[in-house]
Each structure stands twice: as C-alpha cells, then as structure tokens.
Design a protein that fits this description.
This protein is mainly alpha-helical. The protein has a domain of 67 residues. It is built from eight helices and two strands, in the order βαβααααααα. Strands 1-2 form a two-stranded parallel ribbon. Strand 1, helix 1 and strand 2 form a beta-alpha-beta unit. Helix 2 packs across helix 4, helix 2 packs across helix 5 and helix 2 packs across helix 6. It is elongated, with a radius of gyration of 16 Å. 21% of the residues are buried. The mean pLDDT is 92.
C-alpha cells in the first residue's frame, strides 16, 4: 500500500517546471485519488547530493549553485574522483546514501527546494494545520 508518492526532478532551467509538476499533482489526486508530492531541484537533484558531502576545498558552493550544468561540471567529476562513477547510477546511490546522513546541511544549502518539499510533506501529514 502506498500513501504518498514523492517525485523529485531536475528543473533543467525550465521556468515552467513547477507549474507542470502542480498539474501532475492535481491529476494524480483528481483522476486516481492518489497523493503525489512533486518538487524540482533548482538545478539538478545531484546538487542536493553534493550539498551533503565534503567537497574538494577549491570548490565554491556559490559556483556550484550558479553553474548551468552542475551534474557535468561537478557531480560527474566528484563521482569519478571518489571511484564510484562506474557503479549503477554513476555513483548516485552510493553518494546519495552518504549525503543523506548530512541532511541538515542539504537543507541549509538548498533552502528553497528542500523547504518546499518539506512544507508539502508537512501539509500532507498534518492536514488540520493547513485549514
């Protein structure tokens, strides 16, 4: 049994991404009676992973957040440096599990996207607080 579906996707520079996700949430509720909570990372989900890891000292967080293609510029080289690039998902599973142990830092560095996801989850868990 599934109570809620979480969908976290890359924004990929698409300004309409949030609007499209909202339409999917409404569609899931109206057409299927299911709860879908969707959120887009400001850039790419891999940035959330990087936020929870100890990165090379010469990397600037502001540069990572400003980068148009942070997956290619930062995540892939980092995964290669860590020796996990050739694992399934190019190291995403391994590095995400490690990063998740430092969720507080992810939340701090990716405030808008993670806060929006948390707020939607809170509203779903505590519907009386929304009313």
């Amino acid at each position: 049994m599934v109570d809620v579906f979480l969908l976290c996707v890359d924004r990929d520079g698409e300004l309409e991404r949030r609007e499209r996700l909202t339409h999917r949430e409404v569609w899931a509720a109206q057409e299927h009676g299911r709860t879908l909570i969707a959120e887009n990372a400001w850039q790419e989900i891999e940035v959330w992973v990087l936020a929870g890891l100890t990165l090379p000292a010469e990397w600037q967080w502001s540069a990572i957040r400003a980068e148009r293609d942070p997956k290619e510029a930062y995540f892939i080289p980092f995964a290669e440096q860590r020796g996990v690039l050739n694992t399934p998902g190019q190291g995403r599973k391994i590095l995400a599990e490690e990063a998740a142990r430092n969720y507080k830092r992810i939340k701090q560095l990716c405030k808008k996207d993670v806060a929006a996801l948390e707020a939607n989850l809170h509203d779903w868990l505590h519907p009386a607080a929304v009313e």
